[in-house]
Design goal:
With 277 residues, the chain is of the alpha/beta class. It folds into two domains: 98 residues, Leucine Dehydrogenase, chain A, domain 1 (Rossmann fold); 140 residues, Rossmann fold, CATH 3.40.50.720. It contains ten helices and twelve strands. The strands form two sheets. It has a six-stranded mixed β-sheet. It has a six-stranded parallel β-sheet with strand order 9-8-7-10-11-12, sandwiched between helices. α7 links the parallel β8 and β9. The longest helix has 16 residues. The structure holds 2'-monophosphoadenosine-5'-diphosphate. The site of 2'-monophosphoadenosine-5'-diphosphate has 15 residues, from α6.
Length: 277
Amino acid sequence: MSLSKIPLAGVIGSPIAHSKSPQLHRHWLKTYGLQGFYIPMDVSPANLREVLTSLPKMGFVGVNITIPHKETVLQIADLVTDRAALIGAANTLIFRKDGKIHADNTDGYGFLENLKVGAPTWNPKSGPAVVLGAGGASRAVVAALLEAGVPEILISNRTRIRAEILTKDFGKRLQVVDWAQVGNVLEEAELTVNTTSLGMVGHPELRIPLGGLRKESIVTDLVYTPLQTNFLREAEAQGCITVDGLGMLLHQAAPGFERWFDHRPEVDSATRAAVLG
Ligand code: ATR
């Protein structure tokens, strides 16, 4: 392969120093002996458009997009998948050979794959899910749960109006529950998901009464720093099946890697170790 053909990819955000994506993609490149590079790029909102139109000319085949660009990138992309449009955000860009920028959102896919591995007994159709939070991450989770066939989603957010906006966008299977009341509906949940930033290192704890969580129900947290949040620890103590959030990060990266480097990567214990190391 000539040097100019070596595929380049990366992640664009600001700040970007703490992103785990470079470690992850480099681990896969090395594991499969593939040619390619994956680079973190700190790009300001003012420069995003110019950078994205230049990268393909430099040999980039695509990039991941993270905070604060996940929403605005939709206005720059030439093609946006239905799910990215519905979620209102993209995390994966493909630079096509015809010069067009294709935007997709794989967060929901990553979320579901992580649950499939961590809670193989979960049947989406078996009952309601409770979703805490109504930000960008919540939108990806809600879209994925609906697509998977979850019959009802009880959504609760500190700022109620944001949850109400989700019911407008995603339809009748969503019901808003007041943040102060959410402890009272947990007993209905087959699955409970924290999509807020509460419990993350440097953020306040998630403080809702968890006594209603049903034994054997599935509880998952999108927060993965720390890996075992207090929310997951308490749920586990109550007999719930818990799934940490790191797997979502790993699985959401797989479709992009496959498109850019032409190899479907495995998410296994070595992948987890590479990112945690
Ligand atoms: P993301 O794209 O990661 O979801 P976001 O859009 O900033 O990020 O959303 C963060 C989520 O965490 C929101 O649901 C937010 O609630 P608000 O909509 O009320 O802001 C939630 N969150 C953050 N800090 C919180 C806190 N101290 N108490 C309750 N919810 C909080």
